[in-house]
Structure formats: structure tokens, C-alpha cells
Amino acid sequence: MPIVTKRIIAAAFAAGGLFAHPADAAEPAASALTVGGAIRFNYVHKSWQDDYPGGFVGLDTARLDLNYDDGTVIGSAQYRYNRFPKGQGGYWQHFLHHGWAGIRLADKSELHVGLDRNPFGLQPLASNNFYESIAFYAGLEDKYDLGVTYLSDPGPFEWQLAFYPRDGGSYGGGSNTAAASNRYSYNIVPDDDAQGYGTGQRDRERDTLVGRMAWHVGPGANYEIGVSGLTGAIDNGRGTRTRRHAVAVHAQGAVGPVKVMLEALRYRYGTAHGPTQTYAGLDPNSFVMLGAFGYPFPVASKGDIYLVNVSHDIPGRLGPLGGFRVYNDYSVLRKRSGAYKDSVQNVTGMSFSSGKWTFYADFMLGKHHPYLSPDGGGLAAASAAHDGFTRRINLQAGYYF
């Protein structure tokens, strides 16, 4: 069998979640395939959750990672299983986080095909903490879709271009989850009558084009400035397509142990909702339904997101612990549709590690946010009964192998 064929088969195993047959273990390409994973546990306390005054502890995630890289053929896949305790919904789900195969070209640029991260904004993440930023919940950070991604060769100037005909799809979950929202990435999804808002909205993302350019400047190319753009279709399930757009500018850099991340983005989700596709008397075209992790919630159809993150790496060790980083991540969503109040998220925390263990300790403060308040409006409408800031404490231990 030609060596190129063997490499492609091995890469397909990595991207598809399959294991190589033991008889292939002695072949040279097999050494490029690595298997790993993680299991993570959380302690969570929510200031608004009176029925759990002492918080709760539970499994967060168990996952399997497969990666392949023989220098030319590359691939990566990850599958996750979540089971959350009653204080966090009492549900389970599983989904493909990502899965792609590709090639590395002679100039070190890469071409990927499959479920891959959108090259939009700060990369790979626009945050330091475990819960990421408001951009994540608006579908504009750490987002994965199905299609083709090109990454230019590394250097002072880099660019990425991607086309995604479909989103990442939905997978499985308990009976108390919304079927269309059993996924990792926050996508525009059909609403759910039992586990959602019953709006009857049936939107889906289609034909998304994403482009990003970044310049590395300063001493040692230690600073990055960049611009990103996104455009795509929204299929409303009734034969009508509208458009969605987003643009972002970002900058990040480090001075010694201090790193700063900045991003400003504007998005617009065009809609074609009928007068009955709403809830609580809201303008049906002032919001869209985004879903992931088992449930959908409404997000303002137009808005601006700003984020400012500062982190400081602390050298040295404390017994078996090391890799200390303290940070403060701030993000805000200013809504430009409906008479909707701003959503705010601020996370002050620390991460550190010991061998294969990684730990997060996050203090989260925010309002009008689906993960930081009892606000039923997600990132769109806000209840007058919950206009103040609420708090969430998250302590996590994760074993990575």
C-alpha cells in the first residue's frame, strides 16, 4: 500500500473517532497517532440558588481526544460526555466537540476538512477563565462548524479563510434536554417547546464564510493586532433565507509575565420571524434562539461586544503546584435591538497545575446572562426582578491524560 494512502487512512481514524487495528501498530505512520482525554469535576455556588445554599459538586466532563500528525497528514477529534448534578440542571448529554482531517503543505500552511474551529477574533480563545466570555454565548468565540478551513503559513502576517455549509449538528442527551441544542458550540438553533421558550422559531445557520487577518509586531513579534469578518445565511425553516454578519478587531500582547487581550465586535442576525414566533410580547425579530449544552436561549439579534482581559503569570512552585496564572476577564454585550439591557460578565480567577492535573478557581460576577443570573431572557430581554449583579463561584479539578 502506498505510504500516502496509509497516512490518509490513519488521519481518517483520528478524525472519525476510530482506533487503528493492532496489526498496524508497527507501521511508521501509527506513531503519529496519539490518544488522550480528560475528566473534570466542579464545585459550583450560585448566589441566587436558595435551594443549594452550600453549592454542589459533580462531574463536569469526560472526554476522549485523538490527534494525528506525521508532518504532512494531520487530524484531530474530540468526543465529550457531560453529566451535571441537579443544581446545574440534572441532565446528561454527549457530542462531537470537533473532528477534522487535513494536510500540511510545503510552506507550513494547513487545509482542514470537517468540524473545525471558526477563525474569528482572538485565537484560540478570547478568555483565560473556564467559562470563557460573553462572545462564547453569542456564538462568536470557540465556535465549531462543518466545512473547509485554510490556515496560512506562520509568520509576521497570518490569515485564515473558512467556509462552513453547515453547523456542527446536535447529538444525544437526556429527556430533559432540547434535542437541537445537544452540542458544544452556540449556534442559531430551532427553539424547543418543552425545554425552550416555545416561540416556534426554526432557524438554522447555513453557508458561513469567515476570514481573519493578523499581524505580529513589536520586539520578538510579541504583539498581535487583527481583524475578522463573518457572513452567512439563516434558514428559517419556512423557505426564507436571511443574512447574518459580524466583524471584529482585536489586539493581544505580553510584557514580561503580564498579558492583555482586547476585542471589539459587532454582529447582526437578520431574521424573518412571523408575528407569533415570540414570547412575552417581544418583537419576534429582535432576538434569535441560540443553543448548546442542552438548552436554547434568546439572544438580541443585533449587538456590540467588548472584552478586556488581563492576566499575570507567577513564576515558581508551591510544593507540587506550579504554572500559576491570575486573571480578570471582563466582557459586555450592548444590545442594539429591542429595549434590552446590557449583559455583563466579569471573572476574576486563578489557574494552576500539578502534573496531569489542572485547576481553576473562578469568581464570576454578572447580570442578564444565562449562566450568571436567574434571568429568563438569556442574552436578550431582561427581567426587572433581577436587575442587579449576581455571583457564581466555580472551582474545577481536571485530570488530563
Summarize the structure in words.
The protein is mainly β and 401 residues long. The protein has one domain (3-400): Porin. It contains two helices and 20 strands. The chain has helices at residues 3-16, 134-137, and strands spanning 33-46, 56-69, 73-83, 92-104, 110-117, 144-151, 157-167, 172-173, 187-188, 204-217, 223-235, 241-255, 258-269, 287-292, 295-300, 302-314, 322-335, 343-354, 357-367, 390-400. The longest helix has 14 residues, at 3-16. It is globular and about 55 Å long.
N-C termini distance: 33 Å
Instruction: State the low-pLDDT regions, or none.
Output: 1-29
Quick check: average pLDDT?
91
Radius of gyration: 21 Å
The structural class is mainly beta
The residue fraction in helices comes out at under 10%
The CATH homologous superfamily? Porin
Write the element-wise H/E pattern from the N-terminal end onward: HEEEEEHEEEEEEEEEEEEEEE
Strand content: over 45%
Oligomer state of the chains in this structure? single chain
Categorize the overall geometry.
Answer: globular
Helical run tally = 2
How many structural domains?
A: 1
The biggest beta sheet is recorded as:
16 strands, antiparallel, barrel
List the strand order in the largest sheet: 1-2-3-4-5-6-7-10-11-12-13-16-17-18-19-20
Number of strands: 20
CATH fold title: Porin
